[in-house]
Structures are given as structure tokens and as C-alpha cells.
Amino acid sequence: MGDEDWEAEIIKPHVSSCVPVFEKDRYSSGANGDTFNRTPASSSEMDDGPVRRDHFMRSGFAAERSLGNRDAGESNKRENTTTMGGFGVGKSFGNRGFSNNKFEEGDSSGFWRESHNDCEDNQTRTRGFSKRGDSEYEHGEGTQRTGGLFGSRRPTLGGAEQCLKGNGDTYQRRSGSGSGRGGYKGFNEEVITGSGKNSLKSETEGGESGDTQAPKITYIPPPPPEDEDSIFAHYQTGINFDKYDTILVEVSGHDAPPAILTFEEAHLCQTLNNNIAKAGYTKLTPVQKYSIPIILAGRDLMACAQTGSGKTAAFLLPVLAHMMRDGITASRFKDLQEPECIIVAPTRELINQIYLEARKFSFGTCVRAVVIYGGTQFGHSVRQIVQGCNILCATPGRLMDIIGKEKIGLRQVKYLVLDEADRMLDMGFGPEMKKLISCPGMPSKEQRQTLLFSATFPEEIQRLAGEFLKSDYLFVAVGQVGGACKDVQQTIIQVGQYSKREKLVEILRNIGDERTMVFVETKKKADFIATFLCQEKISTTSIHGDREQREREQALGDFRCGKCPVLVATSVAARGLDIENVQHVINLDLPSTIDEYVHRIGRTGRCGNTGRAISFFDPESDNHLAQPLVKVLSDAQQDVPAWLEEIAFSTYVPGFSGSARGNVFSSVDTRKNYQGKSTLNTAGFSSSQAPIPVDDESWD
Ligand SMILES: Nc1ncnc2c1ncn2[C@@H]1O[C@H](COP(=O)(O)OP(=O)(O)OP(=O)(O)O)[C@@H](O)[C@H]1O
């Protein structure tokens, strides 16, 4: 069967006699048993549950936490999805793969080839500014994007919903196209034009544009637990936490305030200190030691620190401290809310995580944090906002949408935070971010404080960032910019395309029940591998941009709680996610860029804990990564296989030897002529032996 046939096979799976009974309810119910899912378009989503407008006290109290539940309960409606089993099970992969409930080895060549040429998944291996994985990120909510940055999207395979049971059984059903799968612009959401007007009708207006009649997104995420124990639940720092103190830190820019060595030196208010203690933080991480005083001093900041080293608290704590000091102005139940702080991140799960951190640190204060993101009911986002919003955590698309609907005003914005800032400013999100800073009412960069955080900062992005930052911004580099976390033991093994599954199963069987994230390059492949692993009786779930938001959250929940110890993921889960006890990351496919690799393996080895990353290197497709891989490995003091070195030095990589190597490495603040540069270790002492950062030129 050729590739085309395989495609057809996926789109129209044979209904197999081995199709299992579809267990609908397990996947259609919210935490309280209600169904959180889509319904046929209703007249007004914003009206489908009266908003409670009572008992809001302004100061001295944490925000009420009971409304989300109620809203969810009132507005959830019965799912109308037709259940269809078949795909991914039994013979539904037809001749190519599954047969008698087994995936047959050696009969998969078409799949592998097909998925690597899968334009739906944006498989172009780009260097430099990356369009990679764009499909996997929260690109907002509109039906189409302007600027032609993104390929068209076929409502094909993604319509096949995958349900993976912990016991190894696998279900698939197909849902209608445009069902709000997450990642790209959805089918029924909108794009804000440069003028701030909506180019298409949004969900709130019926989600229809021209002939398109897409179902509305009605998913309302279950509210997070509200008891104090859950809010402050945290995992332990690892044995290497104290080693953070030896990492060299470089601060560049004029008049940087000195680092602090303890939380006490930050002079935060008592409530914040209590929350910090309840969160289990006793000692600052390097990025916190430097960033907190810089932000408290009112300076703009670009901060780069290794994955899992506490960047979130590094910006949240000083912003909150300022808000507590200055007081907040937004009042509840105004139709237009004017937050003091906007935090943007590229994926829904990440922004939700940041929100939970903001909620934790603002516990017991008058500051109210709100999260809004795509794939969820628009009316739900509005209801969250009108209850009062001081810190708005948002994905870019939903943010622009809500601004366009005039539910959020920007006049009061004092802090703009871009987490995963290099991603937020690259070709994927950069245009959206530019729109954001030029929105009517948004204070100019001189009037607001802008904070950019990431573990990777390509030079090009640093240059672009100038548009967002005051010219005297400070740059903090903890260790090697773009370097991998040294607590992750990295192994690269050569595995050809056709041996990958076999090798994966072998490794997973050795790993046993330890939590493992398996990264693949395409959404289709994520479905496929997850299904395959389930058939191998390895409890697996998956997360990618074609899954509905409800499914994505369910998958993450199942992985977090250990119900499914294996999570197959695309780039959508590469950045920022902080999941306890992820001991292994496996790159079944290497990503297209080295930055992506650094982020992916950073899902393990967090906060001083150790982890392992195993990457399958296929010389047929991954040679362009050999050089940067060798560098990342050696910088992190990992063994570099001789064969990899050989490939690295025999492979010509365009641009690698030049200074404009795209996103390969950026070691320092790209402002070449800064003064006042100081290099210190994280105990705060100057070091005359700071390592000269390896730059492009020194590489070859
Ligand atoms: N000072 C601290 N003491 C103890 N735990 C901390 C401290 N700072 C952060 N943590 C914890 O470390 C974990 C990782 O933090 P965080 O998610 O902010 O890392 P990050 O640097 O943003 O990572 P990534 O680059 O992957 O986004 C979180 O669980 C967080 O609560």
C-alpha cells in the first residue's frame, strides 16, 4: 500500500470486526460527572449561565474560588459526539499496520515515510527562525491566520479522537471537523486584524463565517482544586539543587542591582513570604537571585536560565510584590477589566500552569489572577475575567480575541511578561505579540515593565526583542544560554526509522512504571505510537494539537497522576511543563532544532532532580543536528558518542559556522557594546574565571 493509501486508511479507517466497545463516558465527563464538551451552536455562550455577582470584597481577600464550578455545572451540555470505534484498533489500520489487534512489524514503511512528509504537521525542517511545530502551539483561536505564516490545515486525521485506556486498550472515534482541537487556530474562532477589529466572527457571535458552520467550542475546564493543600502542593527539590550555586551567571547592561542571596533580602510582604514558605521554597535559585532584584528595581529584563530552574517564580514574585505595594485598581464586575499584569505563554497547558503558580503566590492577597486559553468556551473566559482580573494569564490567540471583544483594556498594564519568550517572538507568535504591544491603550515600552524569560534565546530573537524592551534592559544569563540542564543524563543512540518502535518498546519495558515522555514530530505519529504502545500493553496517553482541549487536559491529568506513565507528545508539550517525577524523556524523533531538543529534555531533571533523556538519531534525517548536539552534550559534560562526532564533523550544515546560525546557539547578550558587564557565580561573588561563552565563531 502506498503512502496515499495509508493516508486514506487513516482518514477512513476500515471498521474492524475487532473494534472494541467504545467507552464514551470516561472521556466525556468532567470532574464532577458533568459533561464538558461541545454542543451544537447555541445562541449565546456568554448567556448560558448567569454570572454570580454577589459577595465580592475588594481588598485583603483572595479571590473567591467557587464560581468556576458553578459555571461549569450550569453550562455543560451533553455531548453529541457520535461514537465510532475502529481506528487504531484491531484491523483498522488495514494492511499496513494492525492486524488481529497487533501492529505487525516490518509493514510500516509507508507510515513512517508518510508522517515525515506530513505537511499537516509542518514537517519542514527549518533552521533559524522556526516554523516547526507551529501547528502544535497555541496559535490563537481564529479560523485563519494572516501573514501566510502557516500552512493550511486539513480537518482530517485530527478528527479522529483518540482515547487510550490505562489498561492498554485503545479507542478511537471520529468527531466532526473543526471540533476545537487545540493547537492551531481553531475552526471557529477568530483573528484580530491589525485594526483591532475581528476579521471573522468569533465564537461569541456564533462562530460562523461565510459558509463555514463549525460547532462552537463549549468545553469548560473543570476548576482546579481550591483547598489550600492542593494550591500549595509541590514536589521536592532534588539532590542537585544546591549545585545551582556553582553555576556562573552573567548580568549585562547598565547599573544592574546586586543579586540577593535569600528571600528575606527581597523584603517581600508577609503574605508573600508565607506563600513562599508554604510552597516549600527555602532557597533562591540563581535566576531568582538575579531577576527578583532587577524586577523590583523596575528594570526591563531578558532572562535565560536552564529548564526547571524556577523562572516562573522569578517573575511572579517581584511582580506580585509591586502590585501589593502599589495597590491594584481594577474592580470586579466591570464589563471592561484592566489588568495590571499580562503574562503570555505559547501553549494552553503551560499558561494554565503559570496561572496556578500565580494563584498560589497571590493566595490570601487582593490580587486576582485569571487564565484564559483557546479550546475552551469563550463565554467561560469572559466570565472568569469579569469577576475581576489583576493578572491575566493568556495564550496569544485568546488574548487578542478578548481584547477585540473589549473585555480587557490595556491602559493599566504595568507588567508584560512573555514566558518562553523566544517562542513568543519568533515567526509563529511574533506578529501577534507585535499586535499586542501596538493595541490601543497598551502603554508604551517606556511606560510598562517588560520581562522576557526562556531557557533558550537565539540571537535573532534577542535582536527582535529590542522592540519590546526599554533600551537599558538587563540581560541575565544563568550558565550557557541555550544549554541543556546538566542534571539530565543524555544518551544519543543511532536508530534507523524502521527499528524505532521495537527499540522504544524495549526501553519502556526496562523503564517499567517510571514516568516517561516520548516525543515525536507529528500529531499523526503521536496518535499512532500511543496506540501502538497501548497494544503492547504499555499504559500510554497522548497530547498533541489535534486533540480536543478536554482530551489534552485528561491526558496530562492521567500522566501526572501516574495512571498512564507514558505520555506520547509532540512539541506542544516540549516547553515549560513542570510535571513531578518525569524520570525519562525519549526522543523517538529528534526535533528539527537544537533549542527544541533542550526544551524537550528539560521536562525531566527539574529543580535539582536528576533525569534521563534518550534520543534516537536517524542518520537518514538527523544529520543536521549532529553538530549542535555534540555541542549541547559537551557543554553539559555528557559523553559524546564517537559516531556522532564523526557525523558532526563530516556534515556541512549551512549557516552553522557563520554568526547567523539561526537558533543554534546564542551565548551572550547580543548587544555587543554594553558596558558594566559582570560575571558572578550565584553566591554573588565576582569571578575572574568566567567561562568565555562559546559563540558561533568558536564552534568550528
Ligand atoms: N526556590 C525554589 N525552591 C524550591 N522549588 C522551586 C524554587 N523555584 C522553583 N521551584 C520549583 O521548581 C520547579 C520548576 O520551576 P519552573 O517551572 O518555574 O522552571 P522553569 O525554569 O520555568 O522551567 P522551563 O524552562 O522548563 O519552563 C517548579 O515545580 C517550582 O515550583
UniProtKB/TrEMBL annotation:
EC number: 3.6.4.13
Domain DEAD-box RNA helicase Q: 261-289
Bias (Polar residues) ranges: 29-44, 678-690
InterPro entries assigned to the protein according to its UniProt record, in alphabetical order: DEAD/DEAH_box_helicase_dom, Helicase_ATP-bd, Helicase_C-like, P-loop_NTPase, RNA-helicase_DEAD-box_CS, RNA_helicase_DEAD_Q_motif
One Gene Ontology term from the biological process aspect of the record: regulatory ncRNA-mediated gene silencing
CDD domains on file: DEADc_DDX4 (cd18052), SF2_C_DEAD (cd18787)
Pfam families from the UniProt entry: DEAD (PF00270), Helicase_C (PF00271)
Keyword terms, alphabetized: ATP-binding, Helicase, Hydrolase, Meiosis, Nucleotide-binding, RNA-mediated gene silencing
Residue span, Helicase ATP-binding domain: 292-475
Catalysed reactions, as listed in the record: ATP + H2O = ADP + phosphate + H(+)
Transmembrane segments: none
An example Gene Ontology molecular-function term: RNA helicase activity
Residue ranges of the region described as Disordered: 25-216, 678-700
Motif stretch (Q motif): 261-289
Biased segments, Basic and acidic residues type: 67-80, 113-124, 131-142
Helicase C-terminal domain ranges (all copies): 503-648
Nucleus recorded as keyword: no
Subunit annotation: Found in a mRNP complex, at least composed of TDRD1, TDRD6, TDRD7 and DDX4. Interacts with RANBP9. Interacts with RANBP10. Interacts with PIWIL2 and MAEL. Interacts with BMAL1 and CLOCK. Interacts with Tex19.1 and, probably, Tex19.2. Interacts with RBM46.
Family: Belongs to the DEAD box helicase family. DDX4/VASA subfamily.
Protein's name in the database: RNA helicase
